[in-house]
Design brief:
Blueprint lengths: L1 H19 L2 H29 L8 H9 L4 H25 L13 H28 L6 H12 L3 H26 L15 H29 L8 H9 L4 H25 L3
Length: 278
């Protein structure tokens, strides 16, 4: 029985390995970085609009909704959905094979490899969520993620267990944001690249990762604050974090800085499409 299980596992690993040898699969997966770049640039644009007093949701749903409203936008969203699914499947392949599947660099049983596999699985979940959101807006059924988050938070706050879960979600968001800040400040993101990118890549990645990390961590803090204040309207994710930033002293200036940082991450995503180690 154990031998059969081992054979099945090895067979699955070989099948995944063959899949990552496909140049077409890799190119479509890389397109996920391109679409991510566009989404971040749209979010940056919405943040600038907020800085100058116009409305909008400064998160993924706001960006996808803005794109869906443009001529040809829904077609682009269908393309984005396919690219996000491909990237999610690629991350699942890295979960099985280890990081950088085309380089055969993953080690079995290695602690670092296990951590990298866990991160790859987390990214797979994120990209599947992106794909689902793109599908919703492409098919005309997209909704504000901020409103959905607030509604779900309100339901969870009705029980003690739900409140604990929300606090855990907030702490996880803070940890993810902190990781982004660390990755940017330490310039570890350069390890994800191959070849010789432009010298502009380093400042783009540094600013982009730190800015995105601050926004994600801010969203996590707001979730925890919402729980202790019994105010689910504060737990609206990235949009809530950005708008809270705008209401602070010198809020307009801070929003413009946030927009520049998110835009830097968007441009860096285009670099990833070309130079990322896959």
């Amino acid at each position: 029985m154990a031998q059969n299980e081992t054979n099945r596992a090895n067979g699955m690993s070989r099948a995944v390995d063959r899949a990552t040898d496909s140049n077409t699969f890799e190119r479509v997966a890389r397109a996920g970085h391109v679409m991510s770049g566009f989404v971040h640039l749209l979010i940056a644009y919405i943040i600038v609009q907020l800085a100058f007093g116009t409305g909008g949701n400064a998160d993924q749903s706001g960006a996808l909704g803005a794109l869906a409203a443009k001529p040809g936008g829904r077609l682009v969203l269908w393309v984005a959905m396919v690219a996000f699914i491909a990237m999610a499947l690629w991350r699942l392949a890295e979960t099985v094979l280890g990081p950088h599947a085309t380089e055969n660099s993953g080690g079995d049983g290695d602690e670092t490899s296990l951590l990298d596999r866990a991160k790859a699985f987390g990214l797979a979940v994120v990209y599947f969520a992106f794909a689902f959101s793109a599908y919703q807006f492409a098919s005309g059924g997209g909704k504000s993620s901020g409103q959905q988050n607030a509604g779900m938070s309100a339901r969870l706050m009705e029980s003690g267990g739900g409140k604990i879960l929300l606090v855990v979600v907030g702490l996880v968001a803070i940890a993810i944001g902190g990781y982004h800040i660390y990755k940017g400040a330490s310039k570890n993101f350069l390890d994800d690249l191959k070849g010789t990118p432009s010298k502009l890549v380093e400042p783009l990645g540094l600013v982009g990762y730190v800015a995105k990390g601050l926004v994600i961590a801010g969203a996590g803090v707001l979730v925890i604050v919402a729980v202790f204040n019994a105010d689910p309207s504060k737990a609206t994710g990235l949009d809530g974090a950005v708008k809270t930033l705008g209401s602070a002293p010198f809020g307009q200036f801070l929003l413009i800085l946030a927009a520049l940082g998110i835009a830097a991450y968007g441009v860096y995503s285009f670099v990833m499409a070309r130079y990322a180690r896959m």
